[in-house]
Structure prediction request, 252 residues.
Amino acid sequence: MRCLLLFFSLSIFSSSSYAQFELIGDAEFMSGNCIRLTPDYQYREGIAYYQAKLDLTRFFEITFDVFFGAKDEGADGITFVIHDDPRGYSAYGTWGECMGYGRWSPSAYWANSITPSIAVEFDTYQNLQQGDPWHDHVAYLENGVSYHKSYWSNDQDDFNIEDNFLHDFRFSWDPETQTIRVKLDGKTVYTGQRDLINDIFKGKTEVIWGFTASTGRKSNLQYFCLRNLAYENTPDNSPFTEDPALNTSKTE
Ligand SMILES: [Ca+2]
Ligand SMILES: [Ca+2]
Prediction:
């Protein structure tokens, strides 16, 4: 059984460690080890990057609580991003439907986007130009392209994450099998195999990570709260331990 270095993770995310995030735009520190990405106002964009880079040569799992708002008709959503953009901790993408990560269309290189990168978007507003269904959804993105052909929505036509609850978000990376795995509230919402080090980051193994979010004509309060970052202690060939049963917890 794989063993996660919990003491190591605790040393990373201690009570003051949320101060170790670099904030851009409308992002602000909140109480309770949380960071607000956007207030519930139109045309806002906020980004938070953790100051210590991720090591892609090691197995890791990142766990956060994420809040997408209380208005089902709100917008636009949050992305979890891993990048090596030359702008470093100042990198940002386009507002509105691009959630502070991507650009208006795959070929709109004139617009701001974060690249090279991968991201997982939690999208709360339909934008036909980006291939969105009418309900909320999760999608895997690369290199600042917000447009996507596939998504996850739990097979629900009324899937909604702007429900005034915190949602359990987990992202894991296994360098041996080159597998990305994303969970939301205990359900696997994305798995994929990708040679991140070579195919995305051109050999770089230390990369920046964080969250981006924005609003547009519609808005929501959007934030995340620190929980855990754990690196594997000793690699072996056994499958990663399954998560315990998860429950969302109601916010204040
Ligand atoms: Ca919704
Ligand atoms: Ca959208």
